[in-house]
Amino acid sequence: MSDAGFSEEEVRAGTRVLSLFVSPLTARVLRAHVDGPKRLADIQGAVGMAAESTVRATVSNLCEVGALAKEAVGNSSQAVETRLTEAGKEMVFVADVIDTWLSQAPNGPIPPDSEGAKTAVKALAGGWSSTLMRALASHPFTLTELSALIPSVTYPTLERRISWMKMTGQIEPAEREGRGTPYVVTEWLRHAIAPLCAAGRCERRHLMAESPPITHVEVETCFMLVAPIAPLPDHVDGSCMLAAQTDSEGPEGVRGLAGVAVEFEQGQVRSCVPEVSATPATWAVGTPEAWFDAVIDGRIDNLRIGGERPQLALDLASGLHQALFADR
What is the pLDDT of residues 287-314, one digit of tens each? Predict the structure, then answer.
């Protein structure tokens, strides 16, 4: 499976599926199968100008990850065609979400088949897998500071990934006294949680055995980036904990919790920090699957919501969906 050149230690939940789309040909090959099984010649004709060897390699890769399945044509043992599996159908949805995100780029829509799209998706996957997004979700940092925070990634690699993210409009420099240029996330990068959620749910449903676990890093990053852009009623004041179960197990096999504490004032987020309390005033808690469904589909029925002001938790959970998937 393609991992866009990331080391195995870097691949986080969602990266394996997202990285398939670093090559725009992946989406074109998948979409060529939407109306039914295809032989290689039919795929070649549908995707346009691409070398047969490249198309063949893409088909083979998608078969390897379970997005396409081969089947014989008629009674011939030589002639085969490929069809979309359930995993492949969900990957078409991932491709659609990526295209929507690319259309929202701050410097103007990025055509899905362009080099710009390839660079943007690669930059997003690199920022996610290296925990750059987790670091910048909480605070502006310079390259030197980020290098100290993320020792698992070499300085040249980190510099290159920051350059990609800055060039594509996912982060931007901020003014600060002193040495070095700190970087902050853009609103477009906050919206990038949409394709990451779509890719994560696809892995969870169809590639569970070979996908990385969901940890506190993924949970905290998602909540910290999206909560500030979630639309809420103007009168909302108070606090709420958003938390998800992780795949790590604590004592007696109990799955851990990771999340954030969000403070509101007149419908605006005043603070959002990584914190899980045993006695939160108000909360929304769920499994990764429940949160994926809540954020992507707006289905909040599988979340556990409670506390002093359950409507606040409901509004916030619904706001996450509205921020990322308002048109779904």
Answer: 999 999 999 999 999 999 999 999 999 9
Q: How far apart are CA 240 and CA 247, in angstroms?
A: 23
The DSSP string of 93-136 is HHHHHHHHHHHT-TTSPPPTTSHHHHHHHHHHHHHHHTTHHHHH
Q: Give the Cα separation of 204 and 316 in Å (integer).
A: 24
Q: Which amino acid belongs to residue 16?
A: R
What is the phi/psi pair of residue 240, to 5°? Answer: -155, 140
Based on the fold, state whether residues 283 and 138 are members of the same structural domain.
no
Residues 308 and 163 in one domain: no
In angstroms, the Cα distances linking 318 to 58, 135, 267, 296, 322 are 37, 26, 14, 10, 6
Q: Does one domain contain both 137 and 245? A: no
Check whether residue 230 and residue 114 sit in a common domain: no
Domain range spanning residue 314? 216-325
Q: How far apart are CA 239 and CA 286, in angstroms?
A: 18
Q: Which of 190, 208, 229 is the last residue of a domain?
A: 190
pLDDT tens readout for residues 162-193: 999 999 999 999 987 777 899 999 999 999 99
The number of distinct structural domains making up the chain is: 2
* CB of 173 closer than 8 Å to CB of 181: yes
